[in-house]
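Following up on my earlier thread - several people asked me to post the actual chain instead of describing it. Fair enough. Here it is, all 282 residues.
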Amino acid sequence: MKPVAGSGRAGFSLVEAIVALVVTAIMMGALTSAMGSLFQSQAQPQVSYQGQTYSLAPSFQNFRQAVDLHAALAQAIDQADNVIVIGGTRSHPVADPNGPASALAETFTATTLGAAAGSDPFQGFSSWDQVQLNGAQFGAYFTVNPDPADFTILTVQGQSHLTSITQQRRRTATIGGENVVLYEVTLQAIDWSGGSGALTASSLTGTTPTFFYRIYYDAAEDTWAQPPGATHYWYRTDTAWDRDQEGPTRVIFADPYVLAGQDPLAQVAAVSRFSYFLPQAR
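Reply from S.P.:
Thanks for posting it. Predicted structure:
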């Protein structure tokens, strides 16, 4: 008898399909492990500056650290009653129309704004007002010759409890005969669960700050569609009444997984994934 057309065996049995899936999973796992080992073995160019190590961007390790930092910052902002941004451009549209204004030094690790406790809450309507109000405390910490990318973000609960201090610094240097631009971003978390403010150490180093990432570029590559830094926006100002009300502040952080200006002919310049519009009062 001739076999009936289409009566032959076709496809896989259930057991064969399961075996094929298991073999495929093992092969993919081995490939992933091999690729992971390959990337780990690749030497990431690094430079040392002022006692800190900076990795050449793009840096996957620094991007992971940046994600942790920005998750902590987003949580601190969400829980804050007040967000103070010090530094950047237009910190006041009349008294400082162009900037860049000074940020606070990275040695500023206070847990409380002394002058703000019990003060008129309407004095918190702008970061400029907060700088004037807390001038005696801030005065010794203002940076000199600020870079436009430099800023300090303070998150505040109530009127005076600081819950985080976030800093960005951009520095230029010549290292090994190469002109480089270095970005350092740090976040110091402050824990009030014990009744008083305590600085939280880093899980990576056991020291402060709590989170950090440090990257560098060849100076010619530091080109962005929106340059890192802070820009203050204002709803209204009135110099005669001394009435001012700050709107959101646009804050842009350096992105450690962006190769900023490698291709000068590129149609679209690099954009950071870590950008915020921060309200002064929440």
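The longest strand covers residues 161-175. That should answer part of your original question.
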